[in-house]
Amino acid sequence: MLNIVSTPIGNLDDLSIRQAKTLAASDIILAEDTRSAQTLLNGIKERFPDLQITDNRLPPVWSYYKEKEFQKLPEIIKLLKEEKNISLISEAGTPLVSDPGYLLVKSCIQRNLPITVIPGPSAITTALIYSGFNPQEHMFLGFFPKKESQILPDMVFVFYESPLRIKETLRCIDLACRQAGTSKFNVEIVICREMTKKFEEIIRGPIDELIKRNYKGEITVVIK
């Protein structure tokens, strides 16, 4: 199992018990910065004594940053196929968001290897609320492109939707794509339902297949 584990953006008191349990039970932790990872593990020991973590029981931390991601991918995939419990963390916040891990997650999806996401603090939403601006509609650009030609090269859109409206929304997206002359095969949609709950479901597929399904619960839609 690959665990994508969010971590505090600064204050270690923001650690959740689920994050702590997941990291403590890992066979290997992949970390963008191994020093920050050790600080995090020490924070878990101090804040969650019931987990009975000792220095001898700490999982090994492997260095995993963007320049090494492709190189280390085969070994990590091999370990996941052997059913090792591997957790990925970034220096702070949620992995993959302007941090390493995209290639690994994409490779796991292509190979049907199990993935789970343990959510947590986000600098994006924290800053958005601090701003005092209306957060109802916003766009996140990651690290701002260094060159003008790189702006909006491959945009991903995320929005919430009601299970009562999701089919109509998908039909509207399908119609808009056809009117724009965009093939449905060039539009990728992922529907995330009941995230972190008992009946969590991540649904991928062509839009005409997604429209045929019935949906319940809280829904977040991601479009590329």
Automatic annotation (TrEMBL):
One of its GO terms (molecular function) is methyltransferase activity. The keyword NADP does not apply. Keywords: Cytoplasm, Methyltransferase, rRNA processing, S-adenosyl-L-methionine, Transferase. GO terms for biological process: methylation; rRNA processing. InterPro entries: 4pyrrol_Mease, 4pyrrol_Methylase_sf, 4pyrrole_Mease_sub1, 4pyrrole_Mease_sub2, rRNA_ssu_MeTfrase_I. Pfam families: TP_methylase. Residues 1-210 form the Tetrapyrrole methylase domain. Coiled coil: none annotated. It comes from the Bacteria. This is Ribosomal RNA small subunit methyltransferase I. It comes from Candidatus Roizmanbacteria bacterium GW2011_GWC2_34_23.
